[in-house]
């Protein structure tokens, strides 16, 4: 893919081009151009409804914090117009996915409370031993591959999903199904991952996920087992149980967002360490940097590429008028490389502080599982870094085509373990 952009108009269309996210040099060239020349840019791209691209950290943060003016519904993520239409039709029939990402206050606040205790600092302390055990298991598995493997396929895609299954209380026998369904969900823009073409393929993935979790809801209501799945199935909001669709939607956001985002960060974090051996050496020599290293990996990868917000009233962003009903796209990879906020934003620095990245969002929609993601990343690299006698690329990495959640789809490495 060419890496020379000639206009802000062309740069803006990159945000509605899934393949742009497979070429990091071109993507960041486009985002830097937008930050510099047109930080609030109207984008009209074939196959998508128009939107305003917001690329500066300060603007993204301000919009995230004003959840009265800027609503998640009815357009929380960027999708092709045909998929939007199919989901709107599904929503009208009462069978659409309705996760925390899709819902605004006051309903959002009430639903978020259902799972909040399971992601509290106390809950994370109780889960830490299991996370460390799984991290050790997957680092041990590297020894079985004779010093060469695709790190995404063998470690990064599996470890976070095992953690989520443990939290939900799902059997390991369901692991292959959940891995396939989450890959199908976030791979709809990628030719090597998608289930099929068009809106029907996307809605069929959602139907399969909702079907699986409806069965889980019925099972946990009939026989609660003291896990997060049981808490969701038997939750009551304003004295009423969650509908089957809302309970199933809650499982979907926990299982998918808690898996693919962390997978992308772990894979991208290792790739960054491989490409910056001095930072790997710093981390090996000073394990006390694990916390800041994890934050830098999260900033560097920015696994959630964008969320959308819709204006509830006429307003303006950085002086640019945005009419009621128009949508903005919040670009997290751009905000997290903003030269106004980060010193040398294109330098990977495991000791970076402060690190005011927005990869977990802000305001009422701040990621519910941020603490768990941080713990998983730190646990994995706490096991891996001391055991890596050497590591390097064993071929070219490949990225997932997406406009929503993604990162490396392949990371071939060669290595020697201590």
Automatic annotation (TrEMBL):
Gene3D superfamilies: Cytochrome P450. It holds the Pfam family p450. Keywords: Heme, Iron, Metal-binding, Monooxygenase, Oxidoreductase. One of its GO terms (molecular function) is oxidoreductase activity. Coiled coil: none annotated. Its EC number is 1.14.-.-. PANTHER family: BIOTIN BIOSYNTHESIS CYTOCHROME P450 (PTHR46696:SF4), P450, PUTATIVE (EUROFUNG)-RELATED (PTHR46696). Belongs to the cytochrome P450 family. This is Cytochrome P450-terp. It comes from Nonomuraea coxensis DSM 45129.
């Amino acid at each position: 893919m060419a890496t020379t952009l000639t206009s802000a108009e062309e740069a803006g269309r990159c945000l509605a081009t899934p393949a742009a996210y497979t070429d990091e040099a071109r993507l960041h060239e486009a985002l830097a151009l937008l930050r510099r020349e047109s930080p609030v840019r109207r984008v009209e791209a074939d196959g998508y409804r128009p939107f305003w691209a917001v690329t500066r950290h300060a603007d993204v943060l301000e919009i995230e914090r004003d959840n009265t003016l800027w609503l998640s519904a009815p357009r929380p993520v960027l999708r092709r117009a045909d998929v939007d239409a199919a989901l709107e039709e599904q929503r009208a029939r009462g069978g659409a996915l309705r996760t925390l990402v899709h819902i605004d206050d006051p309903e959002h606040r009430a639903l978020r409370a259902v799972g909040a205790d399971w992601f509290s600092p106390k809950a994370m302390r109780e889960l830490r031993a299991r996370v460390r055990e799984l991290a050790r298991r997957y680092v041990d598995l590297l020894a079985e591959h004779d010093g060469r493997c695709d790190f995404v396929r063998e470690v990064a895609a599996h470890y976070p999903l095992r953690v989520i299954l443990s939290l939900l209380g799902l059997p390991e026998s369901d692991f292959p199904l959940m891995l396939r369904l989450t890959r199908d969900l976030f791979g709809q823009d990628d030719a090597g991952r998608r289930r099929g073409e068009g809106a029907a393929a996307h809605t069929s993935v959602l139907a399969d996920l909702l079907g699986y979790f409806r069965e889980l809801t019925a099972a946990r209501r009939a026989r609660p087992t003291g896990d997060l799945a049981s808490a969701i199935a038997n939750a009551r909001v304003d004295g009423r149980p969650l509908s089957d669709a809302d309970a199933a939607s809650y499982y979907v956001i926990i299982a998918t967002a808690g898996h693919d985002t962390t997978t992308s960060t772990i894979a991208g974090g290792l790739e960054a360490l491989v490409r910056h051996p001095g930072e790997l050496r710093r981390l090996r020599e000073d394990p006390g940097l694990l916390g800041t290293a994890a934050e830098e990996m999260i900033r560097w990868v920015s696994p959630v590429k964008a969320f959308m917000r819709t204006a509830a009233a006429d307003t303006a962003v950085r002086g640019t008028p945005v009419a009621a009903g128009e949508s903005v796209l919040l670009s997290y990879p751009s905000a997290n490389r903003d030269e106004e906020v980060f010193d040398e934003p294109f330098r990977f620095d495991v000791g970076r502080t402060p690190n005011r990245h927005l990869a977990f969002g802000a305001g009422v929609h701040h990621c519910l599982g941020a603490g768990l993601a941080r713990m998983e990343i730190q646990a994995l690299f706490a096991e891996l870094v001391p055991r890596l006698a050497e590591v390097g690329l064993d071929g070219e990495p490949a990225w997932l085509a997406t406009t929503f959640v993604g990162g490396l789809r392949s990371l071939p490495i060669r290595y020697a373990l201590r």
